[in-house]
């Protein structure tokens, strides 16, 4: 749903050792659910935590983090420092399945170690990580063995991915949450036998099917089975980190649509609600009304937000009106500062620069 791009098992001991050796983790409190499960708070404190974050989904050239974090690590360090300077407290990273699973059952140890280093960087920078997984954003990178698998085998690979990632991250208080998959969908639509839902945005496929054969099942039945399998896999190695799923809010498209992943039948294993909103010009109240559909008694995070289809003032209006029922907002950062966008020139760069200025201002909603 990132249409803004039109613009622009071996669980390994090494990663755990890297995390354990870093004393910076001691200074960063873990973010947990409140006792009533309705808010976030800092562990062992009554202080409420409000997510003010960015998606770090690609760099200025459209590269995914695994494309450059081995050879250009100083760039990642610089980006995290810039994100911190914006006033953000959470960074949403997007991990690609093909970069973390060498085979159906064997994790990629080199990238797990790099993930452990990224977690240490987050601890030092005092930023929390929303670890979003199972990405297949670049279709050309998806291995044939994964694409050709039937549903059950594919889900098992996904469970193996999450066990490896969770085993690497579980001991760090910098891990805010695991997001099982970006914008999963069920059956239907064009080309229902394709796992990736097109057309791509830019060169990336952000929407992915959970199954290509509903076999007479209801959407909630499939979604519940998938959520349970992956959350069970994570809980085998990590009993405490919060888990969510970032979804397309279909109530924003069709006012009578009801949540699937955040229905009572599906949402029990999920710690909080994550939805993606791009309000349209002149339709701010419609977007706010759609957001209320996802107010189910759990913390509610707008996990993707950008003034793509509305003015900056309308974006502010949406955030202001949504604030009473939300527990956070996550916008975007693509490796460039406000000053760099201004120097670049052009309408697109000017808009992003102005948004970054507002995002970093002290008058957050």
Automatic annotation (TrEMBL):
Q: Name one GO cellular component term.
A: cell surface
Per UniProt, residues of the Glycoside hydrolase family domain are 36-281
Q: Alphabetically, which GO biological process terms does the record hold? A: cellulose catabolic process
**InterPro entries linked:** GH, Glyco_hydro_5, Glycosyl_hydrolase_5
- Matching Pfam families, A to Z? Cellulase (PF00150)
The record's GO molecular-function terms, alphabetically, read: beta-glucosidase activity
Which residues span the membrane? none
Per the UniProt entry, the signal peptide is 1-20
Record key words, sorted = Carbohydrate metabolism, Cellulose degradation, Glycosidase, Hydrolase, Polysaccharide degradation, Signal
Gene3D superfamilies in alphabetical order? Glycosidases (3.20.20.80)
PANTHER family per record: ENDOGLUCANASE, PUTATIVE (AFU_ORTHOLOGUE AFUA_5G01830)-RELATED (PTHR31297:SF41), GLUCAN ENDO-1,6-BETA-GLUCOSIDASE B (PTHR31297)
Q: What is this protein called?
A: Glycoside hydrolase family 5 domain-containing protein
Species of origin reads Blastopirellula marina
């Amino acid at each position: 749903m990132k249409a803004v791009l039109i613009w622009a098992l071996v669980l390994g001991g090494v990663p755990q050792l890297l995390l354990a050796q870093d004393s910076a983790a001691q200074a960063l409190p873990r973010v947990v659910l409140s006792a009533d499960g309705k808010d976030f708070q800092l562990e062992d404190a009554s202080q409420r935590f409000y997510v003010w974050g960015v998606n770090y989904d690609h760099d200025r050239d459209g590269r995914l983090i695994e494309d450059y974090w081995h050879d250009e690590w100083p760039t990642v360090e610089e980006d995290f420092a810039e994100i911190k300077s914006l006033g953000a407290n959470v960074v949403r990273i997007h991990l690609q399945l093909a970069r973390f699973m060498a085979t159906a059952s064997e994790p990629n140890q080199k990238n797990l170690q790099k993930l452990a280093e990224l977690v240490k960087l987050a601890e030092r920078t005092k930023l929390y990580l929303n670890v979003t997984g199972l990405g297949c954003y670049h279709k050309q990178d998806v291995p044939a063995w994964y694409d050709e698998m039937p549903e059950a085998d594919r889900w098992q690979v996904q469970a193996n991915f999450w066990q490896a990632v969770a085993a690497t991250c579980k001991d760090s208080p910098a891990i805010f949450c695991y997001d099982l998959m970006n914008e999963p969908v069920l059956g239907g639509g064009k080309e229902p036998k394709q796992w990736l839902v097109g057309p791509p945005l830019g060169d990336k496929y952000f929407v992915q099917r959970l199954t290509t054969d509903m076999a007479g099942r209801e959407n909630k039945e499939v979604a519940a089975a998938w959520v349970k399998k992956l959350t069970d896999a994570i809980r085998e190695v990590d009993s405490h980190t919060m888990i969510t799923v970032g979804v397309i809010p279909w109530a924003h498209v069709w006012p009578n649509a009801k949540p699937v992943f955040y229905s009572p039948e599906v949402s029990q294993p999920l710690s909080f609600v994550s939805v993606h909103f791009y309000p349209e010009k002149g339709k701010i109240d419609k977007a706010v009304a759609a957001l209320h559909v996802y107010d189910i008694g759990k913390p509610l995070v707008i996990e993707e937000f950008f003034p793509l289809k509305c003015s900056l003032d309308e974006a502010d209006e949406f955030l202001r009106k949504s604030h009473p029922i939300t527990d956070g907002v996550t916008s975007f950062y693509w490796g460039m500062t406000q000053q760099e966008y201004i120097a670049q020139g052009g309408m697109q760069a000017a808009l992003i620069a102005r948004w970054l200025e507002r995002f970093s201002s002290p008058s957050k909603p």
